Amino acid sequence: MHVTAITRPETQVDVGLIEQMHELRAEVFGGRLSWNVHCFDGMERDAFDALNPTYILAVTTGQCVVGSARLLPANGPTMLQMVFPQLLENGHLNSHERMIESSRFCVNTRITKERGPGALNLATFMMFAGIIEWCFLNGYTDIATATDIKFERILRRAGWPLNRLGDVAVIEESSCVAGLLSADRAIFERLRPDCYRSTYSLRAQQAA
Question: What is the mean pLDDT of each run of 10 residues along the chain (208 residues)?
Fold first, then answer.
């Protein structure tokens, strides 16, 4: 398994991975979690996918997408500001140029059974490390996100605690929070599994 980042698909392989990501999101958010999301032809998309986000993907050796997250600069349109302002103190996100928003995080736990530290799914740790690495390589220090309190506990168990930005609010029958996560090399080194590999690490090494 490795982690890759795609902003604008450049090859047919990229296109296929993005399609798999949308299918995974439909399965997780529209199916397993029964969220009120828009699914068409077995794929989940929303307006934020049209803003040229960067997608972080966990991909198996067989080119199967088993984890994904969407990253967008926090000083532009964000889900927190436009969809979940009730999770923010005073309904406002105090963003800056080195803050990015992560949304639509999901992992296919049906396929990925291997466990990492703290008995958490290995693909979850791969995704955490992949998001953090991409952020500090691209100059971002803070990650804003909305999640439910169950996943907040997973972040804490992993050693990546969420700094809340407001009170808990019930959204679609889930208790949800907004918060900030730090992104730097020290946190990356602490969280990354021994087997971790990303395509952008390789590109950075080649560029150097």
Answer: 93 95 92 80 93 96 94 95 93 93 91 61 92 96 96 93 95 91 95 92 56
The reply to whether 202 falls in a domain is no
Give how many domains the chain has, as a whole number: 1
User: Is residue 90 exposed (0-12), middle (13-18) or buried (19+ Cβ within 10 Å)?
Assistant: exposed
Q: How large is the C-alpha radius of gyration of the chain?
A: 16
* d(C-alpha 206, C-alpha 81), whole Å: 38
Give residue for tokens 């040229």.
Answer: 52
3-state secondary structure at position 39: strand
Cα–Cα dist 103/91, whole Å: 18
pLDDT at position 202 is 60
Any residues with CB less than 8 A from the CB of 110 and at least 6 apart, and which? none
Residue 36 domain flag: yes
Domain membership of residue 178 (yes or no) is: yes
Domain contains 93: yes
Taking the C-alpha atoms of residue 192 and residue 2, their distance in angstroms, rounded to an integer, is: 12
**What is the pTM assigned to this prediction?**
0.92
Question: Domain range spanning residue 147?
Answer: 2-195
| Terminal-residue alpha carbon distance, the chain | 24
